[in-house]
Amino acid sequence: MSIPLTTRAYYLPKRDGFESLTLTEIAIEKPKAGEVLIKVHAVSLNARDIVIVNGTANAAIPIKENLIPTSDLAGEVISIGDGVKDWKQGDRVCGHMTLSDYMYGPIVPANFLDTCLGGNIDGVLVEYRTFPARSLVGIPDHLSYEEASTLPCAALTAYNVLMGGSSLKAGETVLVLGTGGVATFALQFAAASGAHVIVTSSSDEKLELAKKLGAHDAINYVKTPDWSAEVMKITNGRGIDHIVEVGGPSTMPHSLKAVAQGGCIHIVGWIAGEKAPEPVDAVLGLLFKGARMRGVMLGSLAQFKDMNRLISANKIRPVVAKVFPFEKARDAFEALASQTHVGKIVIKVSE
């Protein structure tokens, strides 16, 4: 396969909105020892990408100047550097979101934020990119590049939520807030593991899709604002063993009411806002229930491989809401920001 000398990439000369995404041409680097060159076929977007591009990211997230954004790719190995033995030309791969040595365990290393792609390090919204060979995993055979691009962040985070702490057991209850990327993966993984899954959303249409993916119960939180009471009713007063908490402080009061004795609230985001509508006494809420609260960011490379085995064994297919061409990347960001979709927004970079 002939390798071009240059590649197109999206840069952020300034971070003040999606119009700042600038398509330019840069030189293709040759893979160094221990690296491979990847032809990027697809990239998926995360909520993190939105706040980075529009300049509203939390101050704790380090972001380099003139950044190439996004972190999640699926592609094809087209060249290998010296010493690479695990990969060969033509292999279909996904890249880990962080370039740190996060190989094992459910807890991210201390330097995690400094080593994340599309933040402090140039990301993957580019046609060709070198990548450390040790940070790659193979793509399950039944998945397309577009589907596989959704795995590195959303899927891996959902897997770590359910399997990285006290692993989910068949028959336990799982509450999934929303129908975004992490949520739809958590729903599918929980259903595949034999859990009873309850999903919340503001849309009956989204809830119907959630049921098709394996949800046993669905709650429209617009029609049922006191959704924690509805959860307790569904569970006969027992509550939830695992809550996938993507809303943040604004949904935490309900999550504290809905968690079971000895249960766990897994915090993975704050898409509903960073401020609570009412005071949250998490200390007493957790104390009286013997419950736990756990922050989850991503997962290790070993967990990525374990997750892919679960995906392959159960023929799980990621929920891809829409695929945009590379030239329409700005439209993809707009679509994600609208929050009207179910699942993941993907950019098709190349054939």
From TrEMBL:
GO terms for molecular function: oxidoreductase activity. InterPro entries: ADH-like_C, ADH-like_N, ER, GroES-like_sf, NAD(P)-bd_dom_sf, Zinc_ADH-like. Gene3D superfamilies: Medium-chain alcohol dehydrogenases, catalytic domain (3.90.180.10), NAD(P)-binding Rossmann-like Domain (3.40.50.720). SMART domains: PKS_ER. Residues 17-347 form the Enoyl reductase (ER) domain. It comes from the Eukaryota. This is Alcohol dehydrogenase superfamily protein.
